[in-house]
Amino acid sequence: MPTTTTAGPTTGPARATGGDTGQRRTLLRLATAGSVDDGKSTLVGRLLFDTNSVLTDTLDHVEQVSRRKGLATADLALLTDGLRAEREQGITIDVAYRYFHTPARKFILADCPGHVQYTRNTVTGSSTADVIVLLVDARKGVVEQTRRHLAVASLLRVPHVVLVVNKIDLVDYAQDVFTRIATDFSVLARSLGVIDSHCIPVSATEGDNVVTRSSRTPWYEGPTVLGYLETVDDTKRAVGADLRFPVQHVIRPQGAPLAPWAASAPAVDADYRGYAGKVESGRVRVGEEVVVLPRGSHARVVAVDTPDGPLQEAVAGQSVTLRLDTDIDVSRGDVLAGTDAPPAPVRELTGTVCWLAERTLTVGARVLVQHGTALTKGIVRSVDGALDLAFDSGGAPHWEPATQLGLNDIGRVRIALATPLPLDSYKEHRATGAFILVDEADGWTLGAGMAGSTAIPTGPVSGPTPTAAKVDGTTPQK
Amino acid sequence: MTQTQNPTGTNPSTEVPRRTPLGVQPLTELQALESESIHIFREVAATFRAPVMLFSGGKDSVVMLHLAAKAFWPAPIPFSLLHVDTGHNFPEVLQYRDEATTFYGASLRVASVQDYIDDGRLRERPDGQRNPLQTVPLLDAITSGKHDAVFGGGRRDEERARAKERVYSMRDEFGQWEPRNQRPELWSLYNGRHLPGEHVRVFPLSNWTELDVWDYIEAEGIALPSIYYAHEREVVERDGMWIALTPVTPARDGDAVERRSVRYRTVGDMSCTAAVLSEATTVADVITEVGLSQLTERGATRADDRMSEAAMEDRKREGYF
């Protein structure tokens, strides 16, 4: 270990546990969503405050500002207003990322503003989220904004959604109010095909059921918000799926001097050629046969390399370097897939797009399509409908005819591709079913795309309507 | 320094693989963060023409260099390093900077604020702080090196304006950040396309916290400049901060000079970086101390962030990291 007297980058003795440090604290990514004034900033502030993630100097600042505003207690919402304009105008402009941890988990929270381009922000925050924390005001219940946020969560296949019924103190901690909202929500979640949902009665201002269990909701038997986040199953679905390994970079030191500290590795010689990338789903083992897409050639994995030594196997989420048994042509943009169910490369993609730009998406538009590590040109062949969430009239979501998409629209499109892409269905492979559309001229990100059919069942909601959510807030499971 | 060791301190030819098969267990926090950062490094190296990495010898940039080395192993790091030297850097850190550069087989370019002051392109500020003066040499170096991507060690937990920062942060010709007009960043599909003259600031440590950085330093056995650990120094207390006596921060009339055991949580410019009282001489001690600290890293030790409520945001808008 370095000590006070060590000036240079001398490495210390090897530690038996390496990067694991003996603990298995995992990482959970969550995103918040809710309408303006549902108390989202206060909830986030409360989570940070009650997990001791707010340090004295930050809190002093919040207390000073609160006093200046004439408030009796510190306004926890002020903890999350990062920008000058946000503080001046009392609005939230863009997604902010917050960090807190407990002994069990580290949390990365994408704090999404409730208004101003809400779909854009919710899509940004939700695309990487394991859990969406959706807020409603107990006095208002499920509103159109809730339905929209839930629809986006469903489209983006966020594995878990938790509904925080906030301001429960303002309805006198009434169980029937909570039960009614929880029932509405579970019906909606089911109609939108949400994978897993849960409801929690909360007062973010008073701190009920955020981190500490409240004695004022004795009728609620489920977890607190933090308790939920700490225990929600984060076994990544991706690990169990088929192997997908987009090649990022070919590592071929040939000619160049090796990194000084790599020179002694036995596998490394002048002919070293490794394919660097991240396992997006499934697992890759030494000896396994893979198919190189889009060309379709086959090869066998002879090594899974890391700077810490070779592995027998790598799983979804790990960045590694693979070596293959043959010198076939593999380059950035290719995907190494398992031989069981490799995706068929397509010359025309069909998918659902959340349009995130001011300019309109029209038929004939030329765009760049970025998928995994591949980038190709595309021409929009057709717009086959826009999702009408039909919530004003209380109807079911359905596709309306459309010829173009505007900001925050969600639509079905067909795009012709200059080179074939091995697109997965987003429903089955969140990482390799996703793509973005990019403006060829200025580079702006125009849309978030999900290949294949949408997760949202459209048309009339069928099946029996659940009569009531259980009092612990658990949504009836299928 | 042992040249044949890799930065983890393990020797790949003899050690058992560090990572055993995981079954269905998710990655640990540090594995997930490391993997994400390596992914970002590889994306940038594969898609930009001339990336460069800011390297000061501070702990965040040291971790960043270590991750960059791992991302391209066994090939050398495919971009060079850039340090904007204010002329007021701690000598221990400059020595470390040069040794680390050699150890990782990287090449370093130094842009010097002092040169700009000497030839009149910059003027010393009345408060003597040089940190704000870094922006001009930085932007000049980016322009002259034709760099289209610039790695920085900024973390979102550091400061409230940084919490809003994307991993890929677009900057215009003037290096300006426009928080109202950031690109959505979806999945791990990083979009670095930009117009000529623009460049992208890339933050591979975006999702790391101060504690994560220290946990990783411990897990990987990474050495740091000695001033990160407790040592005795002559200090004076000013504005609630412990300022070390240095050539650029001499004692003033009436100062009560004390000899105290201190360490640095950040190692920026001597003119604006304060020490904290500490007895922590090992990484484990530091981790305990950071875990118990009631002050944020910057709040405790950075005078430049105290200048106004939006000091960091304002500097970032001007092109600072």
Automatic annotation (TrEMBL), chain A:
EC top class, as a word: transferase
Keyword Cytoplasm: no
Region (Disordered): 1-22, 455-478
Compositional bias (Low complexity): 1-18
Domain of life: Bacteria
UniProt cross-references to InterPro entries, sorted A to Z: CysN_GTP-bd, CysN_NoDQ_III, EFTu-like_2, G_TR_CS, GTP-eEF1A_C, P-loop_NTPase, SO4_adenylTrfase_lsu, T_Tr_GTP-bd_dom
Keyword Amino-acid biosynthesis assigned: no
Domain Tr-type G: start-end pairs: 25-239
GO function terms (MF aspect): sulfate adenylyltransferase (ATP) activity
Protein name, entry field: sulfate adenylyltransferase
Pfam families, alphabetized: GTP-eEF1A_C, GTP_EFTU, GTP_EFTU_D2
Annotated keywords: ATP-binding, GTP-binding, Nucleotide-binding, Nucleotidyltransferase, Transferase
TrEMBL record, chain B:
SUPFAM superfamilies xrefs: Adenine nucleotide alpha hydrolases-like
Pfam families: PAPS_reduct
InterPro entries membership: PAPS_reduct_dom (IPR002500), Rossmann-like_a/b/a_fold (IPR014729), SO4_adenylTrfase_ssu (IPR011784), Sulfate_adenylyltrnsfr_sub2 (IPR050128)
Compositionally biased region (Polar residues): 1-14
Family: Belongs to the PAPS reductase family. CysD subfamily.
GO molecular function per UniProt: sulfate adenylyltransferase (ATP) activity
Residues of the Phosphoadenosine phosphosulphate reductase domain: 51-274
Highest taxon in the source lineage: Bacteria
Organism annotation: Microlunatus capsulatus
Region (Disordered): 1-21, 299-321
Keywords: ATP-binding, Nucleotide-binding, Nucleotidyltransferase, Transferase
Root EC class: transferase
Enzyme Commission number, as recorded: 2.7.7.4
Name of this chain's protein: Sulfate adenylyltransferase subunit 2
